[in-house]
Design brief:
Structural class: alpha+beta
Strand order of the largest sheet: 1-2-3
Low-confidence stretches: none
Number of helices: 2
Largest sheet: 3 strands, antiparallel
Shape: globular
Order of helices and strands: EHHEE
Number of domains: 1
Number of strands: 3
Length: 84
């Protein structure tokens, strides 16, 4: 599973693309959205999605410092759907 870690305590503020929202993922529907965003492109079978979601939620419950963030980019100008 993809893992990215960053210390953002000294992060500088950068311009944000119009339509970008960054959400803290804390619940099952949000985690399902997050897993679905990378599972298929990385070749995970659809049958593994539920297990992956449950595992990520389990990790979150064990470590209060661990967070998952998802970026949602709302398409404009005739686009449809979301990018994550």
């Amino acid at each position: 599973m993809p893992v990215t870690a960053a210390d953002l305590t000294d992060a500088v503020e950068l311009p944000v693309p119009q339509g970008l929202t960054i959400r803290h993922v804390t619940d099952r529907p949000g985690m399902r959205d997050l897993v679905n965003a990378y599972a298929e492109p990385l070749g995970f079978p659809s049958e593994a999605i539920d297990t992956m979601v449950e595992r990520k939620l389990e990790y979150l419950s064990r470590d209060p410092k661990l967070i998952h963030l998802v970026g949602l980019l709302e398409l404009t100008g005739g686009g449809s759907g979301r990018r994550e």
